Description:
nine-stranded mixed β-sheet, 22% helix
Amino acid sequence: MVCLVSRTGRELQRYNNLGCRQVVGCIPYRYKKGSDGNNSNELEILVISSQKGQAMMFPKGGWELDESVEEAASRESLEEAGVRGNVECKLGKWTFISKRYGKCYEGHMFPLLVQEQLELWPEKNVRRRIWMSAAEAREVCKHLWMKEALDVLIERLKSPQQQKKEDLLPCFPI
């Protein structure tokens, strides 16, 4: 059973030693099903709309004091995109200034290999979710730092012979 309410408030938010709010997100992905019902090699990326507009992005939000970074990534994917899966090893960390608030943020991004897509989720009524190709996702994503994270994911998935063994394993299963 899924809780149909998103976490709210900022009293448990994490900040780094420079005072930047720490946020965490996932790039949900899967392999498209072929006509035979088996997974193909064609990658699909899930993007979501922002709450207050039509901008597209990947699920992300505050990392709270009572959870690990992987738990926060999994929670944000469930709350904002209605997907569950395996949070894989981190793609990287980016520092950026919010255009909306003019404040410093530290963003941690993870791949999420989607295992389940829910029909009901906490932010279903305020967000749209769309599966698309990696190229389309890169084109529509509004945040440069998220596009860079997607580039890291694509490179990681394209070159399995160059991947480290730990990159192939889930860091935090469902």
